[in-house]
Amino acid sequence: MIILIIRTDKPESEIGLYDGDQKTGYEIWEAHRRLAETLHTKILDLLKSQQLGWDDIEGVIAYAGPGSFTGLRIGLSVANTVAYANGIKIVGTHGDNWILDGIKMLENGQGKAQIVPTYGSEAHITQPKK
C-alpha cells in the first residue's frame, strides 16, 4: 500500500511516501510562508522520484495538530483533496508516533473520508476596529 504522509503544523514541513511501513521517500523543507506555493510541487516531485503518480497513492496520513492554524489548514486541505480525488481513506494523527499510528489505522481499515485539524486551543479573534 503506497501511503502519502503530510505534516504542515510548523514552518518546517514534511512529506513522505511509505510502502506499508517501509519509508521509500521523504522530504523536509523550510516552507514557512510559502507552504501553499510549494506543497503540491514537493509532493509531485517526490512521487516522480519514485516513478509514481497521484493515482498510485492508496492512503493518506496527515499530522492533524496541534499546531499553526494556517499550516494545518493548508496541509489538511491538500491531504483531504488527494484522498477525495483518489477515493481512498485518510487518517489524521498526532504525537511522536503519528506516522506508525496512521499506518496501523489504515491497515486496519480505520481511515475516514476526510479529517479536520486540532489546533490545541481556542481561536484568538481580533475585534474589529471602529
Say what the CATH topology is.
Nucleotidyltransferase, domain 5
* Number of helical segments with 4 or more residues: 3
**The CATH H-level homologous superfamily:** ATPase, nucleotide binding domain
Poorly predicted runs of 5 or more residues: none
State the CATH architecture: 2-Layer Sandwich
Could you name the CATH class? Alpha Beta
What percent strand? Answer: 25-35%
Q: Distance between the terminal alpha carbons, to the nearest Å?
A: 55 Å
Structural class: alpha/beta
What letter string, H or E per element, gives the SSE order? EEEHEHEH
Number of strands: 5
- What's the multimeric state? single chain
Largest sheet: 5 strands, mixed
Shape: globular
The number of domains: 1
- The residue-averaged pLDDT reads 93
Strand numbers in spatial order across the main sheet: 3-2-1-4-5
Instruction: Give me the Rg, rounded.
Output: 15 Å
Helix content: 25-40%
